């Protein structure tokens, strides 16, 4: 028994010494690393949120992404600057041989291409995108998420909101529904879906950072009382880059709350700030472009300024936020606000159920209305609250639908013409002519290398003396046209062939 006890004691001491030595060695060896392994179980729900019922629910982007991606398309726009159709002093006997579209020695010019995104909004192929994505394009190609490609036609554009509608000839397409963007909240999760840097079907996540943002990016140099750019952007920190323009900003249900339009960045790439046109504005613009070919915009008939504490102190106001009425614009006699008694110096603080903290919020809301709509306005007049019902008007001062005027021949040509004075005609030793003052998007730029300043002396061999004569000849012209003329600082006669 004693021998057994001694053996047990020796065994226990040996174990203690062994453990102690291991610990000592482990402590002294800094290279010893303990790696822990767990089951290879993917983490699907990485965060949680609280729903409207106050219940804790898993935050999951996959369902929304799967719904949205088939409805977001890649748009490639091409400006086809084809070969020059110029002939310089081509003798008559060779005219038939070369034809009116003689290619000069410089050969064809390379087309300019751009790309962006778009969102399918109906099963029959209507797509909303940004105006700047398709502006000036001679050819539009739309590629779906499943790599099917289609040619698209332009239905209508609205530069004041930087929106456009195009259409492809296809049926039963996946599409997104638009929701009321006025009810989305700052801090709400959103997804941005588009094609940045030609990386098709890219999904990024973020939150709504702000609402009613104006960054003075839409036509900043072409604004007047009847051509006011409508900027009331939703700001988000979801990553948006070049190529995302025209793509979708959606909530976690996969419903459209905005069209991604711009980024604020010192580098031209994402720096944390992206902006989308709210879906309420998108909805109105899209409906009008499809129905009328142009936007039926309601005008309040006031010029406004932002109100802050300094502005309020300088103007003896009793509120520190809102839209200050500084006047009625160039057409004050057509102002619906003036008619009902809104005065200069009033501060608009609410329209319908929308609180107005700045001019962008007011412009954005009014921009979602049509002529004839009545809005309820609350103003603060030096501390006193007053209420008005204002009937919005169109830019002509009434509530009628404005039809889009048919394109005239100069729009098709993409040219601005002016008559040439007699002194210039005498100096150039020509009987008559019409100067091409400027060249924009149209058939001239598409088919020729004509430059501004060209003086048209003949159209299809007929002498022209005025801008009206050129328009009369071309108004009902179909097919090829030959423009003959001169430049003031170049010798010889030049010929440009194009099609109408």
Topology:
Blueprint (H helix, E strand, L loop, with lengths): L1 H27 L19 E3 L5 E3 L3 H7 L3 E8 L6 E3 L3 H7 L13 E9 L5 E5 H4 L4 E5 L5 E10 L4 E6 L20 E6 L7 E12 L19 E4 L11 E3 L5 E8 L10 E5 H14 L10 E4 L2 H6 L8 E5 L8 H5 L6 E5 L2 E2 L3 H8 L7 E8 L2 E8 L17 H5 L1 E5 L2 H7 L5 E6 L3 H5 L7 E5 L2 E2 L3 H8 L5 E7 L7 E6 L1
Antiparallel strand pairs: 1-2, 3-5, 3-7, 4-27, 5-6, 6-9, 7-8, 8-9, 10-11, 10-13, 11-12, 12-15, 13-14, 14-15, 16-17, 17-18, 18-19, 18-20, 20-21, 22-23, 23-24, 24-25, 24-26, 26-27
Structure description:
This protein is α+β, with helices and mostly antiparallel strands. The chain folds into three domains: 63-295, Beta Barrel (Thrombin, subunit H), CATH 2.40.10; 303-391, PDZ domain (Pdz3 Domain); 409-499, Pdz3 Domain. The chain is built from twelve helices and 27 strands. The protein has helices at 2-28, 62-68, 92-98, 131-134, 279-292, 309-314, 336-340, 359-366, 409-413, 422-428, 443-447, 467-474, and strands spanning 48-50, 56-58, 72-79, 86-88, 112-120, 126-130, 139-143, 149-158, 163-168, 189-194, 202-213, 233-236, 248-250, 256-263, 274-278, 303-306, 323-327, 347-351, 354-355, 374-381, 384-391, 415-419, 434-439, 455-459, 462-463, 480-486, 494-499. The strands form five sheets. Strands 4, 22, 23, 24, 25, 26 and 27 form a seven-stranded antiparallel beta sheet that branches. The protein has a six-stranded antiparallel barrel with strand order 3-5-6-9-8-7. The longest helix has 27 residues, at 2-28. The radius of gyration is 33 Å and the shape is globular. Mean pLDDT is 83; it is low at 1-10, 21-26, 40-45, 82-107 and 221-227.
